[in-house]
Write a structure and sequence with these properties.
heterodimer; A: about 75% helix; B: about 325 residues; 2 domains; 14 helices
């Protein structure tokens, strides 16, 4: 019987998500101008749901202080209070309001992950494009260095570097940005390699355009589609790595509210059949799933793939 | 036959070079550690005389390349130094836990590899059906889940109140085989769920790629059953990419083990490493990173060699 009710709830959740995706898609189509609306019409329901979720996460992150009933660090009651009217999701291991910390976590965890991804992306794509355009020894040097760095598993390398520089938020951002930049470099270089051999790039070179103009005006616009999709995927990886490190107690440090460490702090409740500690983990999973759905749609669109 | 061995020897050489560079990076870890290594070891007992004596004893006054050679020969002899935290030999610390971690990874692989191959073949056979779509969607979802989320969901449903399995899999003495299988079941299942989706999707893609080839059409026209076509004709040619994906995921298991071990308090290398990182116990971190990185490089190497050997065009080239 438990299995059947579980199946029922799963089906209900999927149906609800699809309905939300559909409603969101219809709303977006009606409000956006004609050209854009055409793009959105081809959007699958999963991507609609993903976009809706991402929008909600951004809203929650931006307006966190206005939405959250309590502050993220204030101790407002006993430890591990159950769900009630005042503390909708109860309190955590120190007696802080769980819901408020969950809301602030959107700002801290997602914000830090986004900053890290942006840094990794800038570093990786600039070096990758540069290696492809300049070629020669610079390309050899960078590519071999990246090969070696990629021969060490990412999480292990991150742990090694964190031991050297010490655990703090800034250090974690830098370490993960450097490690993930190697993956971005690979892709950016591979994409740019195919563009560099085009005639119009040759023509631009003969016109005497400088390196910077060549990269930003000739190559980047044509490399944009795969790079944007990669940004979404990279964000997921970075987000999961940061959550894992925080979960291990080596990432975002208390008292900052963060989803990874919230799971760790309240994990004992799970063995007693309380699902509260699963909520922050679920929040992480929901965001990565949403981003993946949108990226899947974009990749499908960019490649013109039809199965 | 000889050129294939030359190819493999070249690949092995490349692997050795990679291992060398990796060891260099890990060695540089101590060099980049802020502050003085000797000071760090002595802690409170650091007077200028004791620091100078220890520097002399550890050979810290030698130039860097000499120190690297000394360190590397020590590592090759199995001596990884002593832990800064408790003065125990790092090799002993690792040796005690390495077996546990390998067992857990093997346990997970023993479930995940056959399972994902089977699901991948089935998904290719019934492609575009409901089963295929469901498998694809769950693959996308499971890639997006943090490992600890999967682990805690399993604990919530299979352990704790009314559960069957223990939520904590620490064992002190050597457990019997049955006991181990029982206690390590949840961590192994977590790892399986994390890697199966990817392997399954790639197996499906590798097989479907081949289904458009003329020789498959020939087999179909002969009236062979779809299952037989896939298993007898498509699978052998899809082996190279599948082997690569399996190796990639086994390598992933090695790092995924870290988080899962912490969740289940499993006495393995990952847990030891996390503790050492928070204590900034450099020799221990170095030793474990070396083990993990070495295993990772070796797995990728094996995958490349096996993929080469599984391709008859490369083995019997004229």
């Amino acid at each position: 019987m438990g299995f059947l009710t579980g199946l029922f709830w799963l089906a209900a959740v999927i149906a609800g998500a699809m309905a939300a995706g559909w409603a969101f898609r219809t709303a977006v189509i009606t409000v956006s101008p004609h050209g854009l609306a055409k793009e959105f019409r081809t959007m699958p329901l999963t991507a609609g749901f993903g976009l809706l979720m991402i929008a909600i996460y951004i809203l929650v992150a931006v307006f966190a202080p206005a939405i959250a009933p309590f502050s993220e660090t204030e101790i407002v009651g006993r430890e591990y209070q159950p769900w009630d009217d005042v503390h909708l999701l109860g309190t955590d291991n120190l007696g802080r309001d769980m819901l408020s910390r969950l809301i602030y976590g959107a700002r801290n965890t997602v914000g830090i992950a986004f900053a890290t991804t942006a840094l990794a992306f800038t570093l990786g794509s600039v070096l990758g494009l540069l290696a492809a355009v300049v070629g020669g020894w610079l390309d050899q040097l960078l590519s071999r260095a990246v090969d070696v760095l990629m021969a060490i598993p990412a999480l292990i390398f991150a742990l090694l570097l964190l031991t050297i520089v010490g655990t703090s938020v800034i250090n974690m951002i830098l370490v993960i940005a450097v490690i993930d930049a190697t993956r971005v470099f690979r892709l950016a270089r591979a994409v740019a390699m195919n563009i560099v051999v085009m005639d119009y790039v040759e023509a631009a070179k003969l016109r005497g355009e400088g390196l910077w103009r060549l990269i930003t005006r000739e190559i980047l616009p044509n490399a944009m589609a795969p790079l944007v999709a990669e940004f979404g995927l990279r964000f997921c990886f970075v987000f999961l790595t940061i959550s894992a490190l925080s979960f291990l107690g080596l990432g975002i440090q208390p008292p900052t509210a963060d989803w990874g460490s919230m799971v760790r702090d309240n994990a004992t409740l799970i063995s007693f059949g309380d699902i509260t500690p699963l909520l922050p983990a679920g929040a992480i999973a929901l965001l990565t799933v949403s981003v993946n759905f949108v990226v899947d749609w974009q990749l499908h669109r960019a490649s013109g793939l039809r199965e | 036959m000889s050129h294939i061995w030359i190819m493999i020897a070249k690949r092995l050489g490349l692997g050795v070079v990679t291992l060398f560079v990796v060891s260099l990076i890990i060695f540089l870890g101590t060099e980049l550690l802020p502050g003085d290594f000797a000071q760090e070891i002595l802690g409170q007992a650091a007077t200028p005389e004791t620091v100078a004596a220890l520097r002399e004893r550890l050979g810290l006054n030698d130039p860097m390349h000499i120190r690297y050679i000394n360190w590397a020969t020590d590592v090759l002899r199995g001596d990884l130094g002593v832990s800064l935290a408790n003065g125990q030999s790092v090799s002993d610390l690792i040796g005690r836990r390495l077996g546990n971690t390998l067992l857990l990874a093997l346990y997970a692989a023993a479930i995940a590899v056959p399972l994902s191959l089977m699901l991948g073949i089935l998904a290719a056979l019934f492609r575009n059906s409901f089963f295929d779509r469901f498998a694809n969607a769950s693959a996308l979802t499971s890639i997006s889940f943090p490992e600890f989320f999967v682990a805690y969901i399993l604990i919530f449903f299979l352990a704790g109140a009314g559960g069957v399995f223990p939520s904590i899999s620490n064992f002190r003495t050597d457990p019997s085989f049955d006991e181990f299988l029982y206690r390590a079941f949840l961590p192994a299942l977590t790892l399986t769920l994390v890697v199966t989706a990817h392997m399954m999707r790639m197996t499906r893609a590798a097989i479907i790629n081949l289904l458009a080839s003329p020789y498959i059409e020939m087999a179909r026209l002969k009236g062979m059953s779809p299952m037989r076509i896939i298993v007898k004709h498509a699978l052998p040619n899809a082996l190279a990419p599948i082997i690569n994906v399996i190796a990639l995921n086994l390598a992933y298991l090695i790092t995924g083990v870290v988080v899962v071990e912490v969740v289940f308090v499993y006495p393995g290398l990952g847990q030891l490493m996390v503790d050492a990182v928070s204590a900034r116990d450099m020799p221990v971190v170095q030793g474990i990173a070396l083990v993990f990185a070495g295993a990772y490089v070796l797995l990728n190497l094996t995958a490349d060699v096996l993929a080469t050997l599984s391709n008859p065009r490369l083995v019997h080239r004229r």
